[in-house]
Structures are given as C-alpha cells and as structure tokens.
Q: What sequence folds into this?
C-alpha cells in the first residue's frame, strides 16, 4: 500500500480520459496497484457515466442501426487478455513497451549512480523514462522546468521532503528543486514522465543542461 | 447541455434482487447478447445508447458528423463483441458502456492526430475488479448517491463537470475557455465532488 497518491484533480482528469497518454499510463500503473485510488477512480468514472446519461440525445437514424447490425457477424478482433497486474510482476503496460525486462533495456549512463532508459509511448509531448539509481546513489540537485510525475517501481528514495517507497506516486511542479537519494538497502527503479527537460542546479552538473532535451515518442 | 431527468427512486439501476444482483434492463440486454447473441436486445440498447454516444461524440469536440457516426458504430460493435466480459456484480451497465465510449473517443482523437502508439486508451484505463462484497456494496451505494445528488449541483459546478467529462477538457483548457482562473475551475470541481460525496478518505 503506498502513501503518496495522485491528487483528486489528476484522478478526475484520468477518469474523464483527458490526461495525455504518457501521464495516463503512469497514473494507471499506480491506480491498478492501489485500492484507494481504484475506489476513487471508480467513483469518478461512475460520475462520468451519470453525466453521459444526462446528455441531450442526438438522433441516430435507422440506417446507422442497420449498418451496425450488418457488421455483428464480423470476426472479433483478437484481444489479448489483459493480465491482471500482480504486485511482484512488472506492470503489464511496461511489459508491452519494453520487450524483455529491465536488464534488456538500452540504458544511458549519467554519471556513476544513475542510468536512464527512454520508452516509446507515442505521446508527442511527454518523455516516458525509467530511472535506475544505484543503492545509496544521489541524483544531482535539479529543478523542474515542467511537470514531472514519478512512480516508484522498485526500491525507494528520499529527498528533503520525505522518503518514498514502491508504489508511491509523486508529482513535481515547475520550480521544485530536489536531489533524491536512493535508499541504502537496494537499487531504485522509477518511472518518470516529464513535459520539459530537467535542469541541474548542482554546479558540477550544470554544464549538462544545454544537452538535456525532451525525448518523446 | 446537462439535462437530468431520471429520478432517484425510479432509477432502474438501483433495483437489486434477492441474490444481490443488479437487475436492470440494460444489464439484462447485455446478458442476452452475451448468452444468446440476441439482436432484439442489442437493438433496444442501440436505441437508448447510440443517441447518447452521438451527443458525447459531438460534445465540445472538433469531430465531424461523419466521425461521430463512425464512433457510434465502433462503440456499439464493441458492446456486442465484449458483452460477455460485462459483470453486473461489478459495474453498472451504463458505466461499462460509457467507459467503452470514452476509450474509443480518446483513441479516435489520437488516430486523427496521427499518434503512433502501441497503447490503446483501454490499456491505460483502470480495471475495477474487486471481488470483495463490502467494496462492491460501497461502490453501489456511492453510485446511487452520485446519481441522486448530481441533480442538485449548482449550475456553474455542473457546467464545469460536464466540460471536464463530456468534452474531455483538462482543468486548464476549461479555465481558458470559460475565461476564469485555473484556481476557480479547480475549486468548483472540488466543491462539486464534495457535494457528490466523492471523498479521498473514507
């Protein structure tokens, strides 16, 4: 059970289907593992259904009905059964995007403690990346130029605001500065979805800023 | 336009039979489709839901009438194909159908914007799969409450909820469109959710 969750605004946009694809993917991994958020998302979806039923109907002709009736015998598309995520397995969405497991990914080393692997979601406005921080490793202090969602998949990390563990969902807004440090006991893998590149404030790493670009799609 | 006509007491969704099963017309139609490929039941569903889907497709969006018709057909076809997966213990028929419509609309938008993605809206939507009787009862109560209370929302709150849900607009898009500050949009949504007793903590 996690202690940090998406807020109600975010869950509302999620239930309404209006979140960007990469963000929705990140929120859904948390929601599918968190009973509390599942319950709220369920209520918010029921609310959507009530609003849907209250719409003023727009006439649909019989031609349309007959067109659909004529297609009922079409072959069903192949649907891969959505396997239910269990707490120990890699979330199904990531499995779809990864082909293989974490060790098969193409990782880019950033210094000695951090490596990053970019996954392709097709969302043109958001970078969707896995961060692997070595146990006890520290990510240089950085600030956020945009919004960053982080979901902890394995291990945990801490920063000046607190410490976070598997399943926790965090959101950082523009201007938030922090320097997360992975827990001493194990490596940390988290998913980060950002709409603008990070900016290092730690003077030793500032030289990298001009090279940090958003890697989307 | 919000136009709520169903009354709480007469709401067929609130009927529960002795086994605790939801016995309303739309759940029965879905069961008939799943069990017997019943076209008459499908036609009843179509006549009720297709006009709502078309309204949903055209809500504040840039979809053309042709795309709206295409969406209605696609959603109704999915309803037919997936009816076997509907479980009346876990969800209201209307919520299940709305979820398919919402996901198909999002996918259609993405197709029109030429997104190249391996993920569908369904892949990233939540799965309501609790088996726990207490949780299911709680969900059912909350659903009935939302239906009853939604008619009592002040117009400005109902308007914003409709924009967020039916038009699929983010809070900041709603703020730009209605020319009111983002904070006001957020507080109106929050007030509305409070009135509907959708709470973060039990």
A:
């Amino acid at each position: 059970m996690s202690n940090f969750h998406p807020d109600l605004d975010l869950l509302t946009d999620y239930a309404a289907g209006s979140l960007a694809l990469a963000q929705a993917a990140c929120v859904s991994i948390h929601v599918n593992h968190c009973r509390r958020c599942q319950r709220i998302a369920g209520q918010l979806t029921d609310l959507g259904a009530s609003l849907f039923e209250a719409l003023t109907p727009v006439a649909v002709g019989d031609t349309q009905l007959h067109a659909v009736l004529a297609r009922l015998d079409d072959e069903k598309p192949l649907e891969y059964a959505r396997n239910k995520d269990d707490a120990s397995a890699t979330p199904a969405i990531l499995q779809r995007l990864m082909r293989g497991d974490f060790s098969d990914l193409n990782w880019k080393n950033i210094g000695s403690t951090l490596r990053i692997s970019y996954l392709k979601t097709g969302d043109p406005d958001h970078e969707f990346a896995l961060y692997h921080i070595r146990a006890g490793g520290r990510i240089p202090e950085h600030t956020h130029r945009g919004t960053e969602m982080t979901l902890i998949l394995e291990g945990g990390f801490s920063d000046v605001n607190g410490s976070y563990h598997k399943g926790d969902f965090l959101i950082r807004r523009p201007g938030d500065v922090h320097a997360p440090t992975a827990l001493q006991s194990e490596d940390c893998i988290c998913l980060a979805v950002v709409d603008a590149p990070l900016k290092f404030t730690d003077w030793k790493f500032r030289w990298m800023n001009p090279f940090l670009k958003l890697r989307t799609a | 336009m919000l136009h709520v006509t169903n009354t709480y007491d007469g709401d067929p969704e609130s009927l529960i039979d002795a086994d605790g099963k939801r016995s309303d017309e739309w759940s029965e139609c879905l069961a008939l489709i799943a069990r017997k490929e019943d076209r008459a039941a499908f036609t009843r569903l179509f006549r009720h839901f297709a006009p709502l889907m078309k309204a949903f497709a055209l809500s504040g969006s840039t979809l053309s009438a042709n795309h709206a018709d295409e969406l209605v057909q696609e959603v109704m076809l999915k309803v037919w194909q997936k009816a076997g997966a509907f479980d009346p213990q876990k969800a209201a028929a209307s919520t299940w159908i709305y979820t398919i419509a919402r996901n198909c609309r999002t996918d259609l938008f993405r197709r029109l914007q030429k997104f190249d993605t391996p993920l569908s809206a369904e892949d990233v939507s939540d799965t309501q799969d609790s088996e726990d009787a207490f949780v299911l009862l709680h969900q059912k109560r909350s659903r009935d409450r939302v239906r009853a209370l939604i008619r009592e929302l002040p117009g400005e709150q109902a308007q914003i909820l409709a924009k967020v849900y039916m038009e699929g607009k983010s809070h900041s898009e709603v703020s730009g469109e209605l020319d009111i500050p983002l904070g006001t949009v957020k507080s109106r949504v929050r007030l509305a959710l409070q009135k509907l007793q959708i709470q973060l903590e039990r």
Notes: The two ends of chain B are 32 Å apart (CA to CA). Chain B touches chain A through 79 residues (CB under 8 Å).
